[in-house]
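Instructor's aside before we start: the two examples that follow are unrelated to each other. I chose them only because their records fit on one page, so don't look for a connection. First example below.
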Amino acid sequence: MILSHPLPPTRIRAQVSRFLPWAAEASWQALFGGRTNAAWLVEDTGQAAVLKLYRQGTENPLFPNDPAAEARMLSHLEGHALAPHLIAHFECDGVACNLYHALRGKPWRSGVTEVADLIKTLHQIPPPSGVRRIPNGAGEIRQHAEQILALADKTLPQPDSVAMATTAPATTEVLLHCDVVPGNLIRCENGLRLIDWQCPAVGDATEDIAVFMSPAMQLLYRGEVLSATEESHFLAAFPQEQRDRYAALAPIYHYRMAAYCLWQVSRGHADYQEAFEAECAALYRDDRSRLRIAKEA
C-alpha cells in the first residue's frame, strides 16, 4: 500500500494551476489505496480534481502501468458514465501525470450485480486504436502464468484442470479494464464508476470477470473474498455463453493470479502471501495434496 508524499513537487503543482487556476489556493490531500502510483485530491470550494503521478520502474507482468493509455481511455470513455473526466495529460521534469475530475463517492463494498452491469456496459463500447491485446484462451493464459512464475523464480503445481485445459481463444474480443477490483470501483450518487485505467486491453470478456472474482484481489482490496452467494449472483448477470466460458477458464485464471501473488511476494510485498493462499484455495479446491505443496512454494 503506497501513501503519496505530503505534496507533489512545486513545478508539478504550478503546472496543475495552469490547467486549473483555482488549484493555486486549493488544499492538497494525499490519497492512498492504490498500490503503484502517487495521487492527491486537489480541492477548493465546490471544485475537486485528482492529480496522479506515475512511478517509474514499475513494470508489472499482469497489470501494466501506462499513463498514456489511461489518458487515452478517459478521453475515449467521455460521455459513457463509466470513468472520470480527463482534464489534462502532461509530463513535468520527466514525471508522467494525469489530472482528472474527482469522483464523489466511496469504494465499492457490496452489490455484485451492479458490477456485472458496469462490466457488460464497458464490453459493448468499441475500443480505441492502439490498445494492447492480452493472452486469450487456455494455452496463452497458461503460458503467461509460467512467464510470471519465471520472473518470481518459483514453480507451482498444475491441477489437471489447468494442465489439460484446451479452451480456444475467444473469437470475439472486447474492450477490457483489466483491473476491476473493489478499490477501483467507486459508488457515486449516480451509479458505479471505474478508476485506474492504466492497463486497458482488448481480449476475452472473461478477463474482467476473472479479475473481479479473484479471491486474492477481493481479499487485498475489500478484506474478504466473495461469498458463494455473491459469486452466484455476479455470474448470473452474464449470458450463459460467458458463464460457461469462464467456468472452463477459471482454473487457469486462478493459476495465473496465484503466480502473480508469488511474484509480488518475491518483491517483498508480504501482504500478497495471504492473497496467494486465498487464490490457491480456489485453484486446488478439489486437490488438497497440491494445495499443501503450493503453500510451501
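Example two begins here.
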Amino acid sequence: MLRPVVAGLDGSRESLAAAHWAAREALRRGLPLRLVHAWEGLPDTAGRADLPEMRVPQSRARRMLRDTVAQLSESYPRLDLSGEQVRRQPGPALLDEAEDAELLVIGSQGLGAVGGFVLGSVAMGTAVHAERPVVLVRAGETAESEHLPDVSGRPSTRTAHRDVAVAVDTDGPCDDLLDFAFRAAELRRAPLRVVHAWHVPLTHGLPDARTRGSFRREAERELAALLEPWRQKFPAVYVTETLHEGRPAHVLPRAVSGSGLLVVGRRRKYPVIAHAGPVAHALVHHVTRPVVLVPHD
C-alpha cells in the first residue's frame, strides 16, 4: 500500500501554500495526497457537535476543506486527492497521520512559529515528535519558487529546478537524511548541494593557516567518503560539496541560500523544537524556502 503525502489544513495562507506544495510533491512521487483538517475546538465526544454555538465554525471548517479540495483538484487534475475533517486535537491527529504518511507537510510562519492549525506547543510537538519527515512551508511559496528565474529574471515553471540543499554532519548518522535528499534531487532533476561546516576545536587555541588547512582537508576527505556510496546509488544526481569554516548554526543559513528545498536532520533526543538541534533550529528560523526535517538518532 502506498504511503500518502499528508498536508495539514487550517485555512491560513501558510497551510494553503503547504497544500499546494504537497500536491506537487505527491505528483512527483506518484503518491496520493491526503488533506487533513483537525479542529481543535471540537472535543472527541460527538454529543457536542450539534450544539448551536458549534454550527457556524463547523460550517466554516467544512467549507474550507471543501474549497481547498476543489482548488487542488482543478490545479492538479492528475492528483489522487482526498480530504477529511478529523474530530481530534490537531497535535495528536497530525502525529497519528504522520505514522502512515510518506511525509507530513504543514504551514510555517518561520522564526520558529508554525502557522495556523498547529500553533505554539502543538507545532513544537508535531515537528519534533513525528517519526516521518516533516516539511515546513511558508506563505507565498509557489510552483515558480521551486524553479530558477527565466532569462529576463521573471518567475517561471519552465526553467530548471533550484538546487536541493542538504546540511550534513559527518560525525552523526546520515543515511535517512541523505536518502531523502538524493531522492528529492533525483525527482526534480536538480543538482544536490551538500553543505558541511567545520571548525578547528578550541583546544587547539588560535590556529594558524597550516592548522586550519589541515582540518579543512580532513573535513573534505570525510565528506567525500560519506557521499561516495550515495553518488554510486544515484548516478544521475549532480552533487556539489561545499565546506564552510565556522559553527554550523552560524554559517549554514547563508550557505544554503538560493536553494529550492532544504533537507536537514532533526535529532529525536531533543524534546522541543527550540532544541531540535541548534542547526535545525537556526535553519527553520531563517531559511525562506521549504525545510524538510528528517528524524534520526
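Residues 209-233 form the longest helix (25 residues).
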